[in-house]
Specification:
Blueprint: H1 3-10, E1 12-17, H2 21-25, H3 28-36, E2 38-42, H4 45-53, H5 59-67, H6 72-97, E3 105-108, H7 117-131, E4 136-141, H8 146-155, E5 160-165, H9 168-187, E6 196-201, H10 203-209, H11 221-237, H12 240-247, E7 254-258, H13 271-275, E8 281-285, H14 287-296, H15 310-319, H16 324-360
Parallel strand pairs: 1-2, 1-8, 3-4, 4-5, 5-6, 6-7, 7-8
């Protein structure tokens, strides 16, 4: 039995952090589902940027939209929704079989709307409606400005993948926003069964401190942060407030480990997969990491429910001058800026493609 299937049997969902048209056309995504126990998928603008930039697979669709006067974001969302809905249909049997626990795909709203709650919620609703797939999560960053949009989107009935979470405090703020949206639906007499995942980025912690700590602490900060967050997650799900919501038909927001590809070439290529095994969580990983784990993966002990060892490890980082609260804020801020840059790069690529296709026509 492949390690990927063993991990899935432990109760952790394996999602792919990638989508390309070739992945769909070649049948590789279907093979990942059938052979490697992949049960969901996440996407981001950088992934689409590289695929549109480096292939001609999208040229026909871009040309069609140009002929009817579409540009920029309108073209991108047309392309993205075409791929995302195809992926959603592949995962639909899993969604149905698991009663909506698994089988999800994710698509991001424009990061340029980050400071505009109303526009973020409207775009989230529009994307969800246009996709017309029940197993689509809309990605909204868990920044200070994004938190109100999370609550409003959930209240509006839009499933949400909360991204850019780095610390326990950021996770709890996002979870609180989700729960408020659910409680408002209950109070309004609406169905509270609206799905969400909270995506905690792991490896970026280790990249940020790689040159600031001794070798004995390399590649250990991200896992220690995850170990700190996991007990908070379990505690929240067992709270009286959440149990009341469950009684009205709500489902818990699952914790998702993101950024789990190993960045340090001297470290194990399955470092974060082995270390973050935990039931009722998700681990989303790039193709390379997924295939490495299927090939030579081994599953360690589950994350400790009490977070044992995390605080001692984090104290060692503090003693080496790492201010965890400040770094968490910086990582989230840098991540938000990176999302904007990726989005602008993507718009530039689409503009370039449009220019080339106009000249060729």
């Amino acid at each position: 039995m492949k390690a990927t299937h063993q991990l899935y049997n432990r109760g952790q969902s394996l999602w792919l952090d990638n989508i390309t048209r070739d992945l769909l056309d070649s049948g590789r995504l279907k093979a990942y589902i059938d052979e490697l126990s992949v049960t969901g998928l996440t996407s981001n603008p950088t992934i689409f940027d590289q695929d549109i930039r480096n292939s001609t697979a999208y040229d026909t669709s871009i040309r069609e939209k140009l002929l009817i006067g579409k540009t920029g974001e309108a073209i991108f969302f047309h392309l993205a929704l075409k791929d995302i809905t195809r992926a959603a249909d592949l995962f639909r049997p899993i969604y149905d079989r698991t009663n909506g626990v698994d089988g999800w795909v994710s698509l991001e709203v424009s990061p340029l709307l980050a400071h505009d709650t109303a526009s973020t919620v409207k775009e989230a609703e529009d994307l969800f409606v246009h996709a017309a797939r029940p197993n689509l999560l809309i990605k909204i960053p868990g920044t200070r400005e994004g938190v109100p949009a999370i609550e409003e989107a959930i209240f509006a009935g839009v499933p949400v993948n909360v991204t850019l979470l780095f610390s326990r405090e950021q996770y709890l703020a996002a979870a609180e926003a989700y729960l408020r949206g659910i409680e408002r639906r209950i109070e309004a007499g609406l169905n509270p069964n609206i799905t969400s995942v909270a995506s905690v980025f792991v490896s970026r912690w280790d990249v940020a401190v790689a040159d600031k700590v001794p070798d004995s602490l390399r590649n250990q900060l991200g896992i220690a942060i995850a170990k700190r967050i996991y007990p908070a997650y379990l505690s929240l799900l067992s709270s009286e407030r959440w149990q009341r919501a469950y009684n009205f038909g709500a489902r818990p927001q699952r914790l998702l480990w993101a950024s789990t590809g190993t960045k340090d070439p001297t470290a194990s290529d399955i470092l974060y997969i082995k270390a973050l095994a935990a039931p009722f969580t998700v681990n989303t990983m790039p193709d390379k990491t997924l295939k490495a784990f299927a090939d030579h993966g081994e599953i360690g002990a589950n994350l400790p429910a009490d977070g044992s060892g995390a605080e001692d490890m984090l104290l060692q980082f503090a003693r080496n001058g790492i201010d965890l609260d400040t770094l968490a804020a910086q990582l989230q801020d840098n991540g938000a800026k990176s999302f904007v840059k990726s989005w602008n790069d993507l718009m530039d690529v689409i503009w370039s493609k449009c220019t080339e296709l106009k000249k060729a026509s």
